[in-house]
Design a protein that fits this description.
By secondary structure, this protein is mainly α. About 75% of the residues lie in helices and about 0% in strands. It contains four helices and no strands. Helix 1 runs antiparallel to helix 2, helix 2 runs antiparallel to helix 3 and helix 2 packs parallel to helix 4.
């Protein structure tokens, strides 16, 4: 997929209403969120990926691939949160002279 089509792919895949469609939608949003989104949108896209992976798992609880997609979505989201918090902490740290950097 070319840059910029992940959101559209997710929308189409979700519209299928099948476990496979939900998994593809979750994967598309994970890729977009991790590699394409800016920091301001990353958490939202990865959160949507978790929701779609949950939907896939709920629709077919015996589907191991859906479980893996769910775990991957949670991992990507957690990674983004840690990265975001670390960048905020670095931007707000106090210098040794008592001034904020």
């Amino acid at each position: 997929m070319a840059e910029g089509t992940f959101i559209e792919a997710a929308r189409i895949a979700e519209g299928l209403g099948t476990p496979a469609g939900f998994m593809l939608a979750a994967w598309s949003l994970q890729v977009h969120g991790h590699f394409v989104s800016g920091e301001d949108q990353r958490g939202r896209h990865l959160g949507q990926a978790i929701d779609l992976a949950t939907e896939a798992s709920s629709a077919d609880s015996d589907n191991a691939k859906a479980q893996v997609q769910f775990a991957t979505a949670i991992g990507r989201h957690a990674e983004a949160i840690v990265s975001f918090e670390a960048s905020n902490q670095a931007g707000n740290r106090t210098r040794t002279d008592g001034q904020e950097s």
